[in-house]
Amino acid sequence: MSRKAISAEPIGKVTSAERDEISLLYERRTGLIELEKMLIRVETRSNADDTLLGKVNQDLIETMVRYHEWWGRMSKKYQLMLSDGKTLRINFDTCEIHEGELEPEGMSTKSSTGE
Question: What pLDDT was estimated at residue 72?
Answer without folding.
Answer: 96
